[in-house]
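User: quick one, sequence for these tokens?
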């Protein structure tokens, strides 16, 4: 098995998968590793529904498609879609105008061998920024390390996936499709399979662009 550093540097996002089967044992092993993620207060509020049935996969994709289309329309308008810091100029008509081709990178996920719908029991979330007048950030910390672990474990086994969150924006419909109760929020949908194409050189900013010593006015962190 490849070493952890290599896995971390090469866990790319993949949306197209071969016909190679993902076994029940694969899914179990991936989740068995992912469960070692940390979570606020060790709440371990994750819930996972692994979908193989074509009609259920399609239902989740269909339910979240309006959110994906709004994202595409936002990008086309030059926006950072769904930021809480700016009012979107995207209209319903703009969303309607998004072509199937422009959102094909999302619809294709219905063809993945397995779709994982990942939820978080909100009673187990540590949303410590709940008192601030802005969108919540900290609560996600109780679930997304688990999701990243899924991607790392899949990659270590020659499989891949992509963290998607559009299903979160369609939460009531997705809860009803997968049987999550109201207190289980939809955090992510992750397809898992063997990638058609493996990418090993990821485009990421260097450390000195985002990290400073002591203060944001401080020296950039670089290799000594
Ligand atoms: C919070 C979050 C939400 C994302 N949502 C989607 C999504 O809905 N659909 C998708 O195809 N990719 C989604 N991605 C994947 C990113 O687009 C991807 O990680 C990024 O473009 C880098 O690609 P790479 O990992 O292949 O280098 C999401 C990633 C994160 C972290």
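Assistant:
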């Amino acid at each position: 098995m490849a070493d952890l550093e290599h896995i971390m540097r090469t866990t790319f996002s993949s949306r197209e998968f071969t016909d190679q089967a993902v076994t029940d044992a694969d899914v179990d092993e991936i989740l068995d590793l992912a469960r070692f993620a940390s979570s606020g207060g060790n709440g371990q509020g994750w819930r996972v529904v692994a979908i193989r049935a074509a009609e259920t996969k399609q239902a989740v994709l269909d339910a979240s498609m309006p959110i994906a289309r709004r994202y595409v329309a936002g990008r086309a308008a030059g926006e950072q879609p769904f930021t809480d810091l700016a009012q979107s100029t995207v209209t319903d008509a703009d969303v309607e105008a998004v072509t199937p081709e422009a959102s094909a990178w999302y619809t294709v996920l219905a063809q993945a061998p397995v779709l994982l719908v990942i939820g978080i029991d909100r009673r187990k979330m540590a949303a410590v920024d709940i008192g601030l007048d802005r969108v919540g950030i900290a609560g996600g910390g109780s679930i997304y390390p688990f999701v990243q672990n899924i991607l790392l474990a899949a990659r270590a086994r020659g499989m891949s996936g992509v963290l998607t969150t559009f299903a979160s924006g369609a939460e009531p419909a997705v809860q009803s499709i997968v049987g999550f109760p109201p207190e289980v929020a939809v955090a992510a949908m992750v397809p898992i399979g063997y990638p058609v194409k493996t990418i090993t050189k990821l485009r990421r900013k260097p450390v000195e662009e985002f990290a400073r010593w002591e203060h944001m006015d401080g020296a950039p962190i670089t290799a000594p």
